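Researcher: I've been going back and forth with a colleague about how TF-B3 domain-containing protein might be arranged in three dimensions. Neither of us has a model we trust, so I'd like an independent prediction. The organism is Salix brachista, in case that matters for your notes. Sequence below.
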Amino acid sequence: MASFSKRITKTDTEKRLSVPIKFLESLPPFHGGHAVDFQAKDENAEVWTFQCSTRKKGRYKKPVLSKGWLRFASRKKLKVGDRIEFYRARNQSTDESPPCYGVRVEREIKLLGSRIGYAPLLPEIKSF
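Model: Here is an independent structure prediction for TF-B3 domain-containing protein. You can compare it with whatever you and your colleague have in mind.
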């Protein structure tokens, strides 16, 4: 179960999320292309579609999440210092089913200007 977590930066909240190259191993195959779409379920069981892309040219792939990322960041009200985690979850379906991913957000907690930890993002309460 490959995963990664990182502290959110200004670029992550405004443009794209850079991801470690090791995360590419857990994604669906790129089939010779430079981008692949995948879905991840959040703590509210909402499914989000993201696109992971790499540079077309150059020595370093430098993977990023672009498509779907800014919508997610906006809806979750991500701020610099928050933490995001993507992980490959167990798939209860067949071996031929697409991989199943999860995404989790933790809010940075500060006391007197110093980070003292993180707290899980509380589930959204939907009004009727």
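Researcher: What would you highlight for our discussion?
Model: I'd start with this: The radius of gyration is 16 Å. After that, consider the following. The helical segments are 10-14, 69-75.
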